[in-house]
Amino acid sequence: MGKIKTHKASAKRFTVTGTGKVKMFHDHHRHNLGGKTAKQKRHLRGSQMLSEAMAANVKRLICK
Length: 64
Prior knowledge:
The chain is of the alpha+beta class. The protein contains three helices and three strands, in the order αββαβα. Strands 1-2-3 form a three-stranded antiparallel sheet.
């Protein structure tokens, strides 16, 4: 019987916390930052938890 492989692109972008929530960091914070306002960059700086519906999809992809 074959094993389910981890989706590596998703594993690099998402982490599962100890309580089972899925944590992500914002995109659009890597380059071309001169064209973005300070407010935009400030809000993109932190992490965010995924919604329950999206978390179920991501957990299936990274299946630790």
